[in-house]
Design goal:
Elements: H1 6-9, E1 14-16, E2 19-23, H2 24-31, H3 35-48, E3 68-75, E4 78-86, H4 87-93, H5 100-126, H6 130-159, H7 168-180, H8 196-218, H9 223-234
Antiparallel strand pairs: 1-2, 2-4, 3-4
Amino acid sequence: MKKSNVQSFQGLTTLLDGQPITNTRKIAQAIKADHKDVIKAVHSLFEDYPELRGECLPPKMPEFEPIIIPYEAEYRGRTFTAYQMNEPAFHLLLPRFRTKRAKQAYYDFVVSFQKMKQQVLQAEANKHDRLFEQLRVDGKQIRKSFTDALKDFIAYAEQQGSSGSKFLYATTSRWINAAIGLAAPTSPSARDSMTLEQSELLAQIEKRAAGVILKGMKLELPYKEIKKDLKEVCMGGVV
């Protein structure tokens, strides 16, 4: 089985009441199955475990008991019923699919659930860490300097004919998050759940990135050349 990687498990889970959950749409996409087939598997779970048939979210998601809750989803103008579930319920469902793709997806989901739980624990610990709080305060100023430089660069690139530079805010965030090993932003904020090492690396990258932008514009370099250097820095390189 192919080992999971950072990109494969991002987006598979999210948080509800501080607990990782997923849903049938994400499962269907991950195992490359029709959503209706995943729904059939959920219904078979209800036959085996009638107590799982919930109608609404409980006041607080149980941590150890499996729970599956219906919700209305929409796709291409059509409304249909999908289900969200916590980790214990997921572990009851996915083993019912035995394809090679489903087995790999199972691995990826397990990693995603564990990383999401670690993110929650780290965010809680950071609330009581004075050094982390100071790094976050300092980092916000560095972040502002970087975003200000990025704003100027977008205008600079557009003057040279660029039509896609407006997406650089999202693109550079994706590059940087990948470089420091952050999952996609969620609740709690991915940056609130960083380790001290990640926080320090984030500040270093954003500071260098701002420098690359400002230096490139001062030298009146083509925007594509500046963007190339920016990508290298944002992904952990040194220019």
